[in-house]
Write a structure and sequence with these properties.
It is a single chain. This protein is globular. By secondary structure, the protein is an alpha+beta fold. A hairpin with a 2-residue loop joins strand 5 and strand 6. It has one domain. Keywords: Signal.
Length: 160
């Protein structure tokens, strides 16, 4: 009986430790930004169906970027200097073993001008000269942070 209790205790401890770690480790960005991110999640949830992205004018830009995924871009938004958190310039998908795609992040991008910020975050240098980009890993946990450029939790196609 003692052995069984010990096993149950260890199992509960293991589950609680690993189940709660992401919650405890999650960085708080404040009430305003948390609300903005919740609104963005609500408005972009439809893109879990990759066909909805194609229907809304997103196109495949280039191949798989390791620890990012496949980028679908709305070129008309890239040409627009205004940033709208609800309508990202880029959607990022992780290719799955079954041939499907999982929405993992949004990417905001501008070309030229001053370095912008969104969600209280300054943009990184973008993929081409004079461009700026900000990833928001709102659909895939990222141990490096919600707004990090790369995400080690996103599988590389070569690894699959």
């Amino acid at each position: 009986m003692k052995k069984r209790r010990l096993v149950v205790f260890l199992a509960i401890t293991f589950v609680l430790t690993f189940a709660l770690t992401p919650v405890v480790a999650a960085k708080s960005y404040g009430a305003d930004i948390s609300k903005q991110l919740a609104d963005v999640r609500k408005e972009t949830a439809k893109y879990h169906d990759i066909q909805a992205a194609f229907d809304d004018g997103y196109e495949t830009d280039y191949g798989v970027v390791p620890n990012m995924g496949i980028h679908l871009v709305r070129n008309d938004l890239l040409a627009d200097p205004n940033l709208d958190p609800i309508v990202p310039e880029v959607l990022v998908y992780e290719p799955k073993k079954n041939g499907g795609y999982k929405l993992v992040a949004l990417e905001y991008m501008t070309a030229g001008g001053e370095r912008p910020s969104l969600f209280g975050q300054e943009f990184d240098d973008g993929p081409f000269p004079g461009s700026f980009a900000l990833h928001a890993w709102i659909w895939q946990a990222n141990p490096d942070g919600m707004f990090a450029e790369f995400n080690p939790n996103v599988a590389n196609v070569e690894e699959e």
